[in-house]
Amino acid sequence: MDVPVYNMQGESVGTMSIDEASLGGEVNPSLIKQAYVRYHANRRQGSSRTKSRSQIKGSTRKIYKQKGTGRARHGNKKANLFKGGGCAHSKTRTHADYRQEMPRKMRRKANRNALLSKVIDGEIRVMDSLAFGEPRTKAFEAMLSALKIDRRALVALSADPQSSRNARLSGRNCSDATLIRSCELTCFEMLNHRYLVIERGELEAWLSGVSSQTDKRARHEAMGRRESA
């Protein structure tokens, strides 16, 4: 499949060939959903707490006398029946673990399959370059407008902080754009945004990098593995 390559003025300057078979051949919704739920669950901090009536600050004075009013018997206003009172069954655990496990090869297949869905739907913008002469938010927004991006966009930048510095500073204040490093591209990030903007070189490196090992090579010939001393 040929994907058009654009410049920063929104003009098509060429095409890039992407092998659909290397991305799974067809979209697998169940695999993508499983990976998405896993990424989402692993982001949960698991530290939510609620206070019991003994932990609420305030007066312990009885709100009215015990008998003779015709109303229910109450002590102070910290009961769970009152607004601002404590919870009847408060959460007291120090940490809740919501993490889910998923095989590494399945995660990589899901990430590549999510990219395939973006390519099929025409929601990817491959750029020949994302080089800005100076940090300028107006220039970044003009680029998104020229690319006809009218929804939230995920902009994958180079992992090199020096080469992507101006682009990062230009796009960090754009409310409809999220900046990440291209090596951190996952199905969770891609599905949370309508469009994906990425340089051609970065996309080629991602396709041929660690994410390409979706078979036994991921275990026996893993990329990036440090050689034993």
Head-to-tail CA distance between termini: 43 Å
Approximately how much beta-strand content do the residues carry? 5-15%
Helical amount among residues, as a percent range? 25-40%
Strand order of the largest sheet: 2-1-3-6-4-5
At CATH's second level, what is the architecture of the largest domain?
Answer: 3-Layer(aba) Sandwich
Q: Largest sheet, if any?
A: 6 strands, mixed
Nearest-angstrom radius of gyration? 26 Å
CATH topology of the largest domain, which one?
Ribosomal Protein L4, Chain: A
Molecular structure report:
The structure is a single chain. With 229 residues, the protein is an alpha/beta fold. It is 29% helix and 13% strand. It has 7 helices and 6 strands. Strands 2-1-3-6-4-5 form a 6-stranded mixed β-sheet. Strand 4 (153-157), helix 4 (165-171) and strand 5 form a beta-alpha-beta unit.
Condensed summary:
This protein is an alpha/beta fold. The chain has helices at residues 29-42, 104-121, 137-146, 165-171, 187-191, 200-208, 217-220, and strands at 2-6, 12-17, 124-127, 153-157, 177-181, 195-199.
Task: Explain the layout of strands and helices.
Layout lengths: L1 E5 L5 E6 L11 H14 L61 H18 L2 E4 L9 H10 L6 E5 L7 H7 L5 E5 L5 H5 L3 E5 H9 L8 H4 L9
Helix pairs in contact: 1-2, 3-4
What attributes does this structure have?
229 residues; alpha/beta; Ribosomal Protein L4, Chain: A; 2 domains; 6 strands; 29% helix; 13% strand; elongated
